[in-house]
Amino acid sequence: MNRLLPMPMSGRPPRWISKSVVSLLLLLTVGSMLHADETKTPAPAVDSYSSTDVVAAQQLVHGMGVADWLGPLAPVALSPFFGITCLSGMAIFGKGWVSAENPFLGATSPLNNPAVFWTFLALTLVTSIPRFTKVSKPFAQAVDQVEAWAGIITLLTLKVLMSATTGSDVTVEAPEVVQLGVISVTVDTLLMVAAAINIFVINTVKFFFEVLIWITPVPAIDAVFEVANKTACAVLMAIYGFSPTIATVINLAMLAACLVVFRWIYRREVFFRTMLLDAVWALISPPKTQLRPEVVVFPVATVGTVPARSRCILSRSEAGWLLTQCRLLRDDAVTKIPFDGCRAELVTGYFTNSIRLSGSHTAELTFSRWYNGQLPALVEALDVLARESDADRSVPHSRLKTELA
């Protein structure tokens, strides 16, 4: 029992890697937009501003209505990089048919820049091509959240850049302020927070269905779903270019539908992402150090007060096992499983592993392949019985569907 196991998430890609990828994408976007601004005619001196210039500046900052801002969120949530590519393409090539009053698609928009268009088109191809086959799709799905957050950060950056294009020397109207208890925030800040939540919720539900498509044993269905997803994104963007109001209504309807199932889906989305990312990372950098005698698990069904597919930590105490669910704003939920009358078996699978409890307590706790190099230490530290793998590799997708269902 002196042997120590990998601490959960240890050896996996650190958070700074994901943040670095997002930051790099953000810097590329901002750099492209600022480069476009440098090529434009320099701003006139403060004294040369006329009342017409000031009004135009105010319209640019405050003229983006709620519909202009919320309208493109649904297609961006469905495909972040492709959605921004469509926005940039409409700003560059959509003159004559897109809404002329939309600041997002106007001549002064940072999206009206070929460098932005080609950058996001390249990112779209890089992230979309692996989704067409079942073999390469796990790699694309493992970093899907990076794309989602990159899309959110890009949209928020666009909002900030558009608000800053008037220059610091031009007097504009004071932003509207909303009082939330003891906190005062501007309307723009609320809209930016709402946009991030909107994209996150819809993207989470979309990711859930992508995984369901992946584990379905039909070879061409992944490519069909990806084409359908991109088509839906393009159609919604075309609707936004024609009428931001109609696009906003569609976006809010999609958001409302996703919110109904979000809590149930989010737990499974965390489960899917953990299994996918850990499986990929185990191939790249398997754990070499031994740290803590605990393992990240996901119950297949409800265990005590812990809902199915909730992220938990399984550890061992003197009297039995402890299943701990970490909660954000509440105390952790701890379920105690005594040794007396309970038997635990470790079973390896095709894509996941599990610890199966039988006897006085019955449960199945799934954990990822990242621990495969440490299974002997896991058996010893948690006092479980090792059982021969029951994975039927002759029917991988059928087995995969059983493990991830």
At a glance:
This protein has 405 residues and is an alpha+beta fold.
Characterization of this structure:
52% of the residues lie in helices and 13% in strands. The protein is an alpha+beta fold. An 8-stranded mixed beta sheet has the order 6-5-4-3-9-8-7-10, covered by helices on one side.
Low-confidence stretches: 1-11, 13-25, 27-62, 166-174
Spatially, the strands of the biggest sheet line up as: 6-5-4-3-9-8-7-10
Question: What is the average of the pLDDT values?
Answer: 77
Largest sheet: 8 strands, mixed
Q: Topology of this structure?
A:
Elements lengths: L14 H24 L12 H12 L3 H5 L2 H6 L1 H14 L20 H15 L8 H6 L1 H21 L12 E4 L2 E4 H29 L5 H22 L1 H41 L9 E6 L12 E5 L3 E6 L7 E6 L3 E7 L4 E7 L3 E5 L7 H8 L2 E3 L8 H9 L1
Parallel strand pairs: 7-10
Antiparallel strand pairs: 1-2, 3-4, 3-9, 4-5, 5-6, 7-8, 8-9
Considering the chains and any ligands shown, give keywords for the structure.
single chain; about 400 residues; alpha+beta; eight-stranded mixed beta sheet; two-stranded antiparallel ribbon; 13 helices; 10 strands; disordered N terminus
